[in-house]
Amino acid sequence: MALAGEDLFFQTAAELNAGWKKGDYSSQELTRAFLDRLEKQGAAHNAVALSLREEALRKAKEVDEERKRERLRGRLQGVPFGAKDLLAWPNHPTTWGAKPYATQVLEEPATVLKKLSKAGAVLIGKLSMIQLAGGGGYRYAAASLTGPCLNPWNKAHWAGGSSSGSGAAVAAGCVPFALGSETSGSILTPAAFCGVTGLRPTYGLVSRAGAMALSWTLDKIGPLARSAEDCGIILEAIAGGDSADPMSAGKGFYYAPQFARPLSDYTVGYAKVDWEEWAEPETRETFEKALEVVRSLGVKMKEAELPDFPYGPLVSTILSGEAGSIFEDLIASGRIDEIADQKQAAGLKAALDLPARDYLKAMRVRRLVLNAFRDLFYETDMILAPTRLGVANRVDTPLDAPPRNGPPPANRKRGLAAHIPAGNLAGLPALSLPCGFAGGLPLGITLMGRAFTENALLAVGKAFQARTDWHKRRPGA
Amino acid sequence: MKLKRREILVAAAAAASTQQAPAQVPAPSGDLLDLARRTQKSNREALDKVLLPMAAEPAFHFKA
């Protein structure tokens, strides 16, 4: 192979595809190298649910034969990848990260995996996840069939959830990219905690057919990758209408950086209070520098604030109502007690008793949230905020432990700090970009925009990554 | 084996109770279930504070 050693594992998908097209290496060589690393280093981080060695090598061979026949399929052809274990793939267990489903085999592959296969990408493994994507509310990083997923930057810390293995495997160089899913933060959080780029697409842009449902009106599938550009390329491959997903928007996506508007056309909303008060003290210097880089791109910056709604209670109520119904059989059978986190089991049991009044009220208030976001995006094209306010939690600390610095003062301005539940309620796209470190652990910033404006977010993200190298940093380097 | 009438009645009653029992939701440790219910209640209270116009319909559709 032309690329030897560690460098190979930290190339972007686009770079790997370019090398494969030139004949620097075959997809079989690439796939074997990534499989070896995934099985060794991925497993050491509890990031792997299942290695798909044999069929991955078969697929890579097919792809190499296509190259010989000059049958080229785009910029993911020949590139290995991983997928969160909530996506169905035939002939193997799809565990949803939970013991009651440890032997479940779903024969119809998830639409997104069919699409990537058609694009010539090679699925090499299913990646670990928080059980049932966190439905019910978990207390420990160990709430997973595969144990706590360890952060490649520091194994005493968590990789984030619920797409834990997707974040960790990309960060550790075990896969060039991975698919994850987000109901409320499950792509953005592991992306930020692991120092990779994560894209949460607009609700309905990517089909969820063949994915475990946690909340029909909140679930989204998207990529975790090595750059904003890779996220655009991957989104183009997986987006599109699908009659098998009743909530599909019926829209495609074309990644078109060549047609991006000048950055000076964009107005980016931000809130000083996020950077100066909401962000944990040890992260503020890093976040401030990232804010300055965004400012230096030539975009217009404008103070903004999220509309005033109880976003956490809204997401919690909607998710509870939908997850309780989805997992009713599991809960009623008593098998819910087999899952690894009893707080989560209790949360799902209580969900069965959620009054219809609460669910419907939350969905009606959600309408007001959607309307308010329309007003917010009348004045800005996108908003910018720290993805998470601090670094990854330690694996041995309960995730619901009280904040180290005490509760925030009641009179603190809202800012944009609640962008994760707010953006998920409104179904808006968001892009998390690595922006530096605090105490040796990665931090991320998020750009969130109007529905179906992924190209705008990716354009600003790409410009940010042209000025910084945080996305190129490697754990242990 | 010959069962006494009393033993037959006890066995029948046990079988009937098994058949008629609704799907059990085994109680987790009470504290955690209570905590989950308290969270639901505090969520409800937070939502009750939002001024909700009668015309506001549930958001089941998302549009660009």
Describe the structure.
The complex is a heterodimer of chains A (477) and B (64). Helices cover 37% and strands 14% of the residues of chain A. Chain A is α/β, with parallel strands linked by helices and 477 residues long. Chain A has two domains: 9-257, Amidase signature (AS) domain (Amidase signature (AS) enzymes, Alpha-Beta Complex), CATH 3.90.1300; 267-311 and 358-472, Amidase signature (AS) enzymes (Alpha-Beta Complex), CATH 3.90.1300. Chain A has an eleven-stranded mixed β-sheet with strand order 1-3-2-6-8-7-12-13-11-9-10, with helices on both faces. In chain A, strands 4-5 form a two-stranded antiparallel ribbon. The longest helix of chain A has 24 residues, at 356-379. Chain A starts with 12 loop residues before the first helix and ends in a 10-residue tail after the last helix. The mean pLDDT of chain A is 96. By secondary structure, chain B is mainly α. Chain B has helices at 5-20, 30-48.
Q: Could you list some keywords that capture this structure?
A:
heterodimer; A: 477 residues; alpha/beta; Amidase signature (AS) enzymes; 2 domains; 11-stranded mixed beta sheet; two-stranded antiparallel sheet; 15 helices; 13 strands; B: 64 residues; mainly alpha; 2 helices
Q: The CATH topology of the largest domain in chain A is what?
A: Amidase signature (AS) enzymes
Query: What characterizes the major β-sheet of chain A?
Result: 11 strands, mixed
Count of DSSP-assigned helices of chain B: 2
Task: State the separation between the terminal residues of chain A, measured CA to CA.
Answer: 22 Å
Largest interface, C-beta within 8 A: A-B, 50 and 30 residues
Mean pLDDT of chain A: 96
Q: Number of DSSP strands of chain A?
A: 13
Helix/strand class of chain A:
alpha/beta
Return the domain count of chain A.
2
- Poorly predicted runs of chain A are none
Radius of gyration of chain B: 25 Å
* Rounded average pLDDT of chain B: 68
Helix percent band of chain A: 25-40%
CATH architecture descriptor text of the largest domain in chain A: Alpha-Beta Complex
Which class of secondary structure composition applies to the elements of chain B?
mainly alpha
Which sequence of strands runs across the widest sheet of chain A? 1-3-2-6-8-7-12-13-11-9-10
| N-to-C CA distance of chain B | 74 Å
Broad CATH class of the largest domain in chain A: Alpha Beta
